[in-house]
NlpC/P60 domain-containing protein (Arenimonas composti TR7-09 = DSM 18010), 169 residues
Amino acid sequence: MRPLHSLTILLAALLLAACASAPERRTGGTAPAPIRIVDVSPDDPLRANEVLIRAIGLVGTPYRWGGNTPAGGFDCSGLVGYVFLDAARLPLPRTTGELARAPGRSPPRDRLAPGDLVLFADRGQVFHVGIYVGEGRFVHAPSSGGTVRLDRIDSSYWSRVYAGARRIL
């Protein structure tokens, strides 16, 4: 099976899964205008496909601050580091701040590629990282008491704190 064909099948499965999720609840105020994301092909589609398969396979793993293994749980940067090392044989820095400064390109928000790191900040301080999987969704380990999950990058919260992306594949 061709790598891009596999990636297409994976993205189609994600879209179908998205149809089964509950709609986001909005509380007061007006929602920001959605950002139209045009997915682009990753520079290394084979490695990106491996990263996506591994990351999505970890959905449901418990969050644990400082965690960096499936058995022990993950925090956000631990998840990213584990996935890229395990699936792409690419060691990455451990902290979110270091990942934000990692070598690579910074694609514009509306031209993300599957496998890009997506970064989130508050008052200029990067506090969270995830892996973009395509179609406006990313995998991440969000918070204490939660689990690794898929979320929409254009939801009201994640859209507001979005700080950029790093293309390292």
Q: What stands out?
A: The longest strand covers residues 125-134. The mean pLDDT is 84.
